[in-house]
Structures are given as C-alpha cells and as structure tokens.
Design a protein that fits this description.
about 260 residues, alpha/beta, globular, disordered C terminus
C-alpha cells in the first residue's frame, strides 16, 4: 500500500454512457469489469473512493420530457436507472474482491442502504467503496450536481469526471476546428463564462464555492482512473488556478 497517496479521498463520477462501452444501450460487461478492476487498484493504494453513477445508458428524464412525459416523473424514472447501474457496478466490484456498499437517495431498502452521510463516512473510514445512486433524490437535479454535493459532504479532495470519448476540456469543438487546443487547467469562472459543458452550472458553482477541483479525463485511456487518482497530469483540471492552454495532442476529440 502506498503510504501517502496524492488524494486521501476522491469522488468518481461515472456517466451512464460510460458503462455502455461501444453498445448503443445498456451495460457492457467488459467495460464494467475493467472499471471495477481500476477502482480496486486505486483502493489498494489507500485512497478512499466514493462513486456517483448516471443513468443515461438506460433512461433520460429530459429526453422523456421532450416526448411528452411529465419532467418530474421522467427524472424519477432516471433515478431508478442509476440504481440499476449502481447495482451492476456493486456486483462487478464484489467479484473483483472489493468491499462495497450502495446507498440510494430514494428508498429501496431491498437492494440498497438509504443515503445517510454519517454511515457513508463510516464505510469510507473502513476502506469500503461507496456507490451513491438515485441522484439527490429530487427531480430537476442532475447526477453532476449529485457528484458535487456528495463530494463536498464526504470531504473529498477532488471530483474525477470520467468522460466517454473526451480527453479533457477544449476551447472549441475539434470536429469543427481541428486546431482547437485542450486546456491543461481552466478556472471555474472561465468554464462558466465560455459555457463549456464540463458539468451543469449548478454543480460547477457548488465546486467553485467550496474550492473543490474537478479533473476531466477520458475513461477509455489505459488505466485512466488509476492515473487520475495517482495525480498524473492527464485531462483538464478545473479549479481556481489560472486557465492554461496547450496544443491538442489529437484531433477528432469532442469538447468536454
């Protein structure tokens, strides 16, 4: 075990789309097992890990609203989708030999604990991985906002935003502008002012007000979660630091 890991406690945000791999829908078992293996490696360094999962690979409340469904109802259905993903991730982690607990913001006691902050903190202190499901339990709130909120509540030092097919935050869409540069660092205010889609504005404001850095990186990279948790300079760091650009290392990447 590493004596002094760079982060003592992290919050990993996984989108639902990240779990579907190359499939058009649902959960890709190989991708899920790969994520679980990386999380195990991070845990073995002594870093405490909490995870927030999205549900977009199964159901999206905003999409359902556009089709005529009541928005609140759609959002609650989306929360149930995140529970499905959380249980799948829990199972993959347990098969990898990781001690894990799932906590839900809505009551589903047959399959998950209710979210209780003090209980979550105790699990982390015992070295368990904690998976937070069902968002905040409220409609109109994204899982990005959940990630920011839970990270602050558990005193995480960083939010690791694992993106699908995106290796950081760009100044423009490289598909449209091949010379677009990726940010090494970008400030919260620049992210908001430039309307870069790192996370929704509520989540980003929460992170800014609590000085909680966000590392945006591509989940597809080799051991990307392990490298991000180890403090390697991958992706883009969103923080109070002054924004700094570098030349894009590859084209064909979308803006985060």
């Amino acid at each position: 075990m590493t004596k002094d890991p760079p982060y003592q406690r992290i919050l990993l945000k996984l989108s639902g789309e990240a779990l579907q791999g190359e499939q058009p829908y649902g959960i890709d078992t190989e991708t899920l097992n790969g994520i679980a293996g990386q999380i195990k490696k991070v845990q073995e360094t002594g870093t405490r890990i909490a995870i927030v999962v999205g549900g977009g690979n199964i159901f999206r409340g905003a999409t359902a609203e556009a089709a005529g469904m009541d928005r609140a109802t759609g959002d609650y259905a989306g929360m149930l989708a995140t529970i499905i993903n959380a249980l799948a991730l829990q199972d993959a982690l347990e098969r990898a030999g990781v001690d894990v607990r799932t906590q839900s913001a809505i009551t589903v006691t047959a399959v998950a604990e209710p979210y209780i902050r003090r209980r979550a903190m105790r699990h982390l202190e015992k070295g368990r991985v904690v998976v937070f499901a069902a968002g905040t339990g409220n409609p109109y709130m994204t899982t990005d906002t959940t990630a920011a909120l839970r990270a602050i509540e558990i005193d995480a030092e960083v939010v690791l935003m694992a993106k699908k097919n995106v290796d950081g935050v760009y100044e423009a869409d490289p598909h449209e502008n091949p010379s677009a540069r990726r940010f090494l660092n970008i400030s919260y205010l620049d992210t908001l002012n430039l309307r870069l889609q790192v996370m929704d504005s509520t989540a980003l404001t929460l992170c800014m007000e609590n000085d909680l850095p966000i590392l945006v990186f591509d989940l597809r990279g080799d051991d990307s979660i392990v490298r991000a948790a180890a403090g390697e300079k991958i992706g883009t760091l969103v923080s109070n630091e002054q924004s700094k650009l570098q030349e894009a290392s590859a084209t064909g990447k979308q803006r985060a």
